[in-house]
Amino acid sequence: MTCFVSEQWNKMHHNGLTLLFVGITGAGKSETGNTILGRRAFNAHDENTTFEDIGIECCKYKGISLKLVDGPGFPDCATGDLFQRFISKIGATLGHGVDVFIFVWKYGSGFSMENREILTLLKKNFGSDFLRNFCVFLTTYGDYYELEHKEKKSFSEYCSNLVGPQKELIEECRGAVLFDNRTGDVNVKERQMKSLLYLIGKKISHRRSPAFKIPSEFKIVSI
C-alpha cells in the first residue's frame, strides 16, 4: 500500500487535480469545497441559481494543485434540458476535463429518488463504468454521524452494513469518505483530506483514461 500511495501521490503532485462536486441541493457541496479550500469562497446555491452558474476556486494541499468546481444542485435532475445546459457549461469551461466527480450525500437524509436519478443520468450519458472510473462518494455532516456512532461503529463498518441502492453505489464507486465541514479539529481535517485523496488516487490508478472530457457535441440522453 505504501508503494501505491507514493506512486499516486507523485502523479497527483505533478499533474494536479480538477474536482467537480455534484449532488442534490442542500447536500453540502459548497461547504465541502470551502473545507478543502480552508476558506469561505463558495456560497450555497438556491432556487434562483441557474444551471449555468458554476464557481471555480483553486488551492494547494501538500503541494498538490486542486481546482474545485462547485455548481448548483439538481432539484429536478430528470429534466434533460437543465442537465444538458449544466454539462455543456462544464465542457466549455473545463476544456482539459475533470479528474474526479465528487458525489456529495448528506448523512441522515435518506437516499432519495433525486439522488438515484442523478447517478442514472451520469451513467446513461457517460457510460456504465462512469461511476467506477470517475466518481467518489463523499458523505457530509460527519459531526452528525459521530454523535450517533461514536465509539460504536467506524464509517467503513457503517458502509459495509448498508443495504440497497446506497450500498451498491458505494461499492461501485470503490468506497466512500466521511467529511465534517464544521469541525475545527486540525487532525480531523487532515484525516478526511488524506482519505479523500487516497480514494481519488485509487480511482485514477484503476482506469486507463486520464481526465474525463465532455464531448463537444454532447446531447443529453434522458432517463
From TrEMBL:
Decide whether keyword Oxidoreductase is in the record: no
Q: Which Pfam family, just one, is annotated for this protein?
A: AIG1
Q: Which keywords annotate this record?
A: GTP-binding, Nucleotide-binding
Instruction: Please give the InterPro entries that the UniProt record associates with this protein.
Output: G_AIG1, GIMA/IAN/Toc, P-loop_NTPase
User: AIG1-type G domain: which residues?
Assistant: 14-221
> Quick check: keyword Nucleotide-binding in the entry?
yes
What's a single GO MF annotation on this record? GTP binding
What family is this protein classified in?
A: Belongs to the TRAFAC class TrmE-Era-EngA-EngB-Septin-like GTPase superfamily. AIG1/Toc34/Toc159-like paraseptin GTPase family. IAN subfamily.
Name this protein carries in UniProt: AIG1-type G domain-containing protein
Q: Which organism's genome codes for this protein?
A: Lymnaea stagnalis
